[in-house]
Automatic annotation (TrEMBL):
It comes from the Bacteria. This is Respiratory-subunit NADH dehydrogenase subunit. Pfam families: Complex1_30kDa. GO terms for molecular function: NADH dehydrogenase (ubiquinone) activity. Residues 18-92 form the NADH:ubiquinone oxidoreductase 30kDa subunit domain.
Amino acid sequence: MIENLVEITSDQLLAETSKSKYESYRFVTSTCIDNGDDTIDVYYHFDKDYEMRNVKITVKKGEEIPSISRIFFSAILVENEMKELFGLNITDIAVDYGGHMLLSDEELSSPMLRQQITIEQRGGKQV
C-alpha cells in the first residue's frame, strides 16, 4: 500500500500537479503498471521535506494523458520513457523524443506492456 496516495482522473492531473508545485513539492518520478486488461495505472511521486505525496491515475490504453512537463520540466525524461516502453499517449511533452529516446525502429514497440498471446486451434489441437 502506498502512503499519502491521492487517486484522481487524468482530467485532474494538471490541477493536482500545479497544486503540488504551489505547495513547494518537487517532482521525484513517475511509474507505471500494466494491469493486464485494457488499463494502466500511472503514479506520480512528489516530495517535500522527506514527505511523499503520490498521485495515481488509471487510464485506458490509448487514452490521452496531459504532460506535466510544463509544470515540472524534469518530467520530460520519465514521460518519454513511459511513452516508449508502455505506449502511453502523453500529449504536449516539453521535449518529445517521438518514441526514440531509448528504442530504435527495429526494437519491439512498447516492450513493457503485457503481450496478448493468441493460440490458434485446429482440429482440437493448439497450433
